[in-house]
Predict the structure.
Amino acid sequence: MSLRVFAPRPPAGEPAVLGADESHYLRRVRRAPDGAALELIDDHGDLWRAQVRSGDARRSEVDLLERRDVPAPARELVLLLGLPDPAAVLELLPGVIEIGVAAIAWVRCARSQSGPPGAARLERVVRAAQRQCGRPCAPIFLGEHELIAVPQLRPDLPGFFAWEQRRGLADDLALSHGARLLIGPEGGLTPDEADALTTAGLRPLGLGPHTLRTGTAALVGLARLMFASAPR
C-alpha cells in the first residue's frame, strides 16, 4: 500500500503540517523517516507528491513537491442505499469509494433495519478507504430520505433500482454521463415500492442469477452501470 497522509494545504512555499493522528500514523505505524516519499491528500481535495521534511509522532512537516492529476471516473454514479445494518454499510463503503461513486444517499425503505452509521465511524471508514486507494475527494453524502423522495434525488441522472424480479434476465444498458442506483436493504424492496419507483421513472435492473447480499448487490450494480455501453 502506498504511503498517504492527510493535512490542510499550506500557503505556497511552506510545508504542510500534520496533526497528531496523521503524524502518529506516519512515524509510528508506517515508520517513515525524514526524506521519505509519500502522497498527501489536502483539504481542497487534491493529491500531491510529497516528501517528509522533519518532525516526530506528535507533529511532522511535509514538503509538497507536485500536484498530481487524478482522472475522474468515466461516469458520475450516485448510490441510493436502502439502509441495511450499519455494520453492512461500513463493510460496503470502502469498495464504493474505490469504485469512485460521486454521492451516497441513505434511503429508508419498508425493510430497512436501522439508521445510517454515526458520523465519526463513517469518517474513519471513508478516510481509511481514501488512504488505501488514493482518492483525494470523498463522496458527497446526501443525507437520509424516505423512499418517496428518491425521484427528487439527482433527477438529472437516469435512475435504476435492483429488483429481484429481474434475476437472471438480461438488461440492455446504454448510458452517457452517469446514473443513480437504488439498492434495497436486506430482504429487498417490496412489490409496492418497486411499483412506485417504476411509476416515478426508475428502471428495474437485474444483477445476475443468484440472491445477493446488499453489499454485493451494490458493487455489482455499480459495476454494471460503470461499464455500460455508450448510446449510439
User: Anything to note?
Assistant: The chain has a mean pLDDT of 93. The two ends are 40 Å apart (CA to CA).
